[in-house]
């Protein structure tokens, strides 16, 4: 089972290569380029579709005061997620851990949990990068589609202010923007109905923060804690309310709002997956991906016994999946091959629980320590000190230079020769 260590090895005294640092600076450059591209696209005159003066769906009155202005939408969908990410990573992350490390001086447990400030800053960097990438993609793609399509808004005729007695052209029965005498800025914006920018932006930011919270709170760990799902869905509900307000203000047709919302959801998911693991892998605890290791070979190691102060080294385990993997041959210390499936040791008499099993690093409202699905446990490490699964490859987050392969240890080579002789 793949796992993430609690402390990112990237934050060591070893300096990073310049190309690795540049790769993350390039991420911010791309986001800035998206912002510049949006303002350039906003100045371009959109395509003007033909319309009919008799079209009832275009005769809604122009709402001078919007229920949610673009400035308010940006504050809700960008600033509030940044605040949530900052508060969680800098203050909350690790605060409710069941096993906190002990300080060297006083012997008391650290209130803030196992994560260092540098680890928290790394999570903050990835969280904000994903949010800005989601918003940048949503803004640019939405603006490109608005200019290319040029669909009239529901209040276009009120914006247009055609001359009294104006009629549709007799040939095709449609009119165009040449009959309009209203404010040119309002007319220009009146041909940008599809897709809804409020909808795409709100879902790009708020659905992203729903994914972020879902990963941190492990909502797919099969424990079924409903309060977590409610917290995760609150930002998405806020995005839906912002999108619905555009229909209430007659700024967009329902189709514009629906497609804009789907666009925002897609951008949020794509941006989140650039920096974080999927929600379907709750054992990774929503921790950000490691620093990029271009042209380097990650060092693989098998921690037989986790450190006492490393909460995050304890993985969530899928018991059903491991029962299938336990049937594979295992190499024992004596050199023999065991084909028997491994089983957990029986619980001691008197109902005494395993202390390492009770020391759950996973923050949960449930006090139960025995679940059929994903669970936190370290009892498997004691067994692996006697036997090593050759197929076990942990999820390493370290940044390591390329290392030349070395010859296998003598003990291991002796085991191989012993097995070869028996064969």
UniProtKB/TrEMBL annotation:
SUPFAM superfamilies to which the protein is assigned, alphabetical: Acid phosphatase/Vanadium-dependent haloperoxidase (SSF48317)
Membrane-spanning parts: 21-41, 73-91, 226-248
GO molecular function, one term: phosphatidate phosphatase activity
Signal peptide (UniProt feature, chain positions): none
Biased composition (Polar residues): 376-394
Biological processes, Gene Ontology terms: phospholipid dephosphorylation; phospholipid metabolic process
Region annotation (Disordered) ranges: 303-423
Matching PANTHER family: LIPID PHOSPHATE PHOSPHATASE, PAP2 DOMAIN PROTEIN (AFU_ORTHOLOGUE AFUA_4G08970)
Family assignment from sequence similarity: Belongs to the PA-phosphatase related phosphoesterase family.
Protein name: Phosphatidic acid phosphatase type 2/haloperoxidase domain-containing protein
Organism: Talaromyces islandicus (Penicillium islandicum)
């Amino acid at each position: 089972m793949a796992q993430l260590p609690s402390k990112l090895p990237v934050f060591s005294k070893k300096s990073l290569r310049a190309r690795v640092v540049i790769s993350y600076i390039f991420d911010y450059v791309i986001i800035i380029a998206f912002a510049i591209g949006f303002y350039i696209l906003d100045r371009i005159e959109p395509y003007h579709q033909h319309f009919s003066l008799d079209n009832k769906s275009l005769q809604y009155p122009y709402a001078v005061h919007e229920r949610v202005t673009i400035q308010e939408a940006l504050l809700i969908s960008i600033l509030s997620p940044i605040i949530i990410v900052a508060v969680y990573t800098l203050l909350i992350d690790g605060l409710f851990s069941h096993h906190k490390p002990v300080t060297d001086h006083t012997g008391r447990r650290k209130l803030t949990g196992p994560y260092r400030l540098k680890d928290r800053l790394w999570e903050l960097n990835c969280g904000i990068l994903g949010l800005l990438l989601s918003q940048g993609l949503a803004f640019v793609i939405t603006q490109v589609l608005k200019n290319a399509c040029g669909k009239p808004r529901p209040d276009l005729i009120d914006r247009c202010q055609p001359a009294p007695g104006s009629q549709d052209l007799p040939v095709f029965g449609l009119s165009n923007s040449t009959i309009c005498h209203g404010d040119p800025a309002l007319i220009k914006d009146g041909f940008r109905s599809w897709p809804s920018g409020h909808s795409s932006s709100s879902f790009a930011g708020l659905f992203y923060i729903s994914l972020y919270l879902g990963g941190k709170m492990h909502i797919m760990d099969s424990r079924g804690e409903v309060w977590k799902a409610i917290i995760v869905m609150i930002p998405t509900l806020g995005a839906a309310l912002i999108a619905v307000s555009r229909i209430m203000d007659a700024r967009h047709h329902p189709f514009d709002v629906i497609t804009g919302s789907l666009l925002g959801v897609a951008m949020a998911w794509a941006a989140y997956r650039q920096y974080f693991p999927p929600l379907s892998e709750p054992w990774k605890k929503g921790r950000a991906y490691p620093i990029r290791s271009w042209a380097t070979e990650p060092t693989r190691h098998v921690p037989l016994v986790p450190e006492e102060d490393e909460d995050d080294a304890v993985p969530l385990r899928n018991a059903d999946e491991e029962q299938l993997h336990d049937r594979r041959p295992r190499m024992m210390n004596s050199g023999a091959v065991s084909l028997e499936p491994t089983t957990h040791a029986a619980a001691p008499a008197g109902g005494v629980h395993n202390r390492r099993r009770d020391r759950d690093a996973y923050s949960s409202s449930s006090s139960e320590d025995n679940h059929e699905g994903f669970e936190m446990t370290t009892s498997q490490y004691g067994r692996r000190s006697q036997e090593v699964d050759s197929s076990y490859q942990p999820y390493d987050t370290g940044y390591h230079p390329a290392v030349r392969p070395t010859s296998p240890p003598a003990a291991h080579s002796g085991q191989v020769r012993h097995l070869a002789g028996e064969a």
